[in-house]
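Margin note: ligand = LNRAV4D5.
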Amino acid sequence: MAPEGSPSSLQAIRYTRGSLQLLDQRLLPFQTAYLDVPDVKAAWTQIRDMVVRGAPAIGCTGALAMAVELQTHKGAGTEFSSVKEATDYINSTLDYLVTSRPTAVNLADAANKLKAAAALAAAADAATPSSVCSAVMDAAEAYFVEDIASNKAMGATGAAALLAAAHARGRGVGGKLRVLTHCNTGSLATAGYGTALGVIRALHEQGTLEHAFCTETRPYNQGARLTAFELAHDQLPATLICDSAAAALMASGQVDAVVVGADRVVANGDTANKIGTKSLSISAAHFNIPFFIAAPTTTLDPHLPSGDHIVIEQRTHEEVTHFRGIRVAAEGVNVWNPSFDVAPCGLIEGIITERGMIPKTKDGVFQVSSRERGKGGGREDGLLNSLWDENTEREYGTRVG
Ligand SMILES: CSC[C@H]1O[C@H](OP(=O)(O)O)[C@H](O)[C@@H]1O
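Resulting structure:
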């Protein structure tokens, strides 16, 4: 099962019922290799080691790993002796999965939706362990397929938003935009097409992209290794810059808009994203360049009031001191390596989701609420969105991680 729109060489996730493989993104762009994911334990390690990365891709991987484990190791439910045994196993396994990386909310979002699917199935009159497991596998597959549909919808909304904001500031080249992005938010970070990079793809498809700029995104180099790979693959006009060159590029007048992804958008619109995003939002504000977030509603976390509540993942020293196993920093120095930082809501022009743009209130903050995640909201609800409603909010409350 591969959502259409993700070319095979850019397919981060390969799935059919009972089989899950991940493109090992640590080897890109030098080597294309897929790793099997036999169960949730393997998925936990591959997410932590960033074999797969990118908030939506992490959520999809976690959901599909649960599905594969139930199908191949639990006999699609026949191994459980009761409905309670099945739901208890599913819930505890999903809780373990969420501990692999704390900042991106998508993994917790996927876990909560699969728990909701299990709870709904378990409450049915003729519930059996197999019917509960089947509901969870269906929910996991729906989560995967819905992600690419979300990205396509976001692309269209985002392209219109960037054009309007840039033109309102008298920016653009013959109506076309020069757009700067950070990290990797494309097919390699999602089920396909991408979030912020999906907006850039949509501009290109509409003939309104003048040029794309991507930052290298130290220390994991998602930009230099992954986004540059995607832009070259799609033959988009693109230039790679060092992270430290972003403000100078803006000062040179070559940037009409900035669009980045997200790992967690909280209630007031503060947004956690790859380290360096805060700097970009401050520089964009200084140069009066519109700064947008593109994120599916699976990345919204209305339970946290503001960005200072977001857990920021700290990663290894070696990510900074070494590159592909070769030491590039002096011995004996300490390292501080937060993997994310928070763009303040006041510097964000708009939050682009598959349900449209989340508007800013008059006092310069956003009101991200669970209603963006539940029924309605402009896009035909898939299975999972119909599962996520106020009851689920009450029952599962604040997310883990
Ligand atoms: C659409 S991907 C969102 C987000 O995830 C990336 O982080 P990582 O590569 O560490 O998983 C980056 O922050 C992207 O913007």
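The longest strand covers residues 209-215.
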